[in-house]
Amino acid sequence: MHQYHKWLRSFYAVAYKGSFTTAAEYLSIGQPTVSEQVKALEKVFKVELFHRNGNTVEMSLAGQKLYEIAKPLFKLEEEAIHLLQSFQQKKVGMFRIGAVSPPIAMELTHELRMQYPTIDFKTSFYSATETITRLRNFDIDIAILARSNFEADLYTQVYKRYPIVAVVREDHPWAKEKEVFLEQLQHEKIILREEGSQTRVQVENICHERNIKLNSVMQMNSREAIFYAIAQGSGIGFVSEIEFVDMLNLQPIKFTGHPFYIEYRLCCLNLRKDRQMISEVFQHYAID
Questions:
Q1: Partners of residue 179 on adjacent β-strands
Q2: Cβ distance 60 to 50 under 8 Å?
């Protein structure tokens, strides 16, 4: 069985990294050793795990099925090593954060770096779907997401809540006001985020409840693009207060009573929530 474990680890590394060369680097062993161990696995069980074409490899159907089993096996092995490291009196290692919003993620990263100076923090940014995929693949340890619904395999708690503000150009009539009423939106040209955006969902839902019709003139899939469109005079937009960037002669405007807000949640895999470092982050920073 010990021999099979080494062979399976080499198979997993090739499947995970996409080539024998990078698999060897990943395992810190020679490429011939990786090749021999994968071939041994194929020979003993009389199955082809990879289609080889020059320097490229592609998993066969059998390889794909084996990879789905091997992936959590070796990711959990890595998790076990991380757990053992966390028992050391002096915390060391790497902690990986995935997020959609740079401002909210960097705020947490900064605070964690101050609290845990011996840990190397890596913060990366993806779409919400990709962030959750990376959580499930054990590529990140914790995520910060602006979602309200989560699957059963995920553990979440509220991290921060920020009001949604309007963003206008400095020559817009609202720029002279400290705050405006929600009903004033009916007279404005609105630039919205793409469908599915939590900012857009919040704005549209509250406006629908109050029978406020929005005159949407443009949809864009990035906050930066909306800022530039507003600067060009195309209309007004919306953003979480923490995500507003003081640029391009733009100004944030609050709504009376803060009718809508974005809720950012810390998220991890249920099976990892009791890992020491993850548990401490939830304990110190969640507000649930």
A1: 254
A2: yes
> What's the rounded Cα separation, in Å, for the pair 162 and 264?
8
Q: Based on the domain organization, do 272 and 255 belong to the same domain?
A: no
Count: domains in the chain: 3
Amino acid at 251: Q
Q: What is the 3-state secondary structure (H, E, C) of 170-181?
A: CCCHHHHCCEEC
Report the alpha-carbon distance of residue 83 to residue 272 in Å, rounded: 10
Distance CA 155, CA 72 (A): 18
What is this structure's pTM? 0.68
Whether residue 152 is found in the same domain as residue 272? yes
Per-residue pLDDT of the chain (288 residues; tens, 9 = 90+): 567 888 999 999 999 888 898 988 988 888 899 999 999 999 999 999 999 887 778 999 999 999 988 888 887 787 777 667 666 544 567 899 999 888 899 999 999 999 988 888 999 998 888 999 999 888 899 999 988 788 999 999 999 999 999 999 999 999 999 899 999 999 899 999 988 888 899 999 999 999 999 999 999 988 889 999 999 999 999 999 998 888 778 999 999 998 999 999 999 999 888 888 899 999 999 986
Q: What is the rounded distance in angstroms from the CA atom of residue 218 to the CA atom of residue 146?
A: 23
Per the structure, the complete domain to which residue 209 belongs is given by 161-262
